[in-house]
């Protein structure tokens, strides 16, 4: 009953012991990091749960019996080896959260039925093998957050970009044309050198006044002659160049 070619066997007793009641009253099956390679059929006995966490396992397939979990609101399947979803995933009409990050999903592995999840608010498809995104995902009009990072996407459909409630769209580390010329890493040595070459004409009036005021303070300090035992320290003193740091983007644009 340990780990083997089929992964760890999950019995009904183990599943029941993994059931947690959350502060909001929902019941969650916490089966993360259990070495599961095959979706446990015994979970059908607990098909009325609202949340399931099967992340960080060795799952390759999600069976069509997933349609039995009609109360599901939250489903976490990240960090498995899933390469396709069953069409039955589209029957989970109450689902608001679906995490499929870090799997092996291809574009063909996304069934059209995925667009039937009309209440879905969070969908994470990052770290997969997607080359395109179905334009039909534009039907998920309740989506607030969509993760598409670390794939092989060269275009994001307009229907997805223009989702009415979308607030967070993560498409980082894809070969998209708009990211072809990414910012080069900052050379800290060059950055420091440039700060010391700031001229008065490159600073706005408020920054210039602040720098001049601090320069006057430095001149006053030069006239001070403290004794050897009471040498003053000024840990919070802001130098003209540190002030320029906060405003460098503004004067660079000018």
Automatic annotation (TrEMBL):
GO terms for cellular component: cytoplasm. It holds the Pfam family LRR_4. Residues 219-254 are annotated as: Disordered. Keywords: Leucine-rich repeat, Repeat. Residues 235-246 have a biased composition (Polar residues). Transmembrane segments: none annotated. PANTHER family: LEUCINE-RICH REPEAT-CONTAINING PROTEIN 18-LIKE, PTHR48051. This is LRC18 protein. It comes from Urocynchramus pylzowi. The gene is Lrrc18.
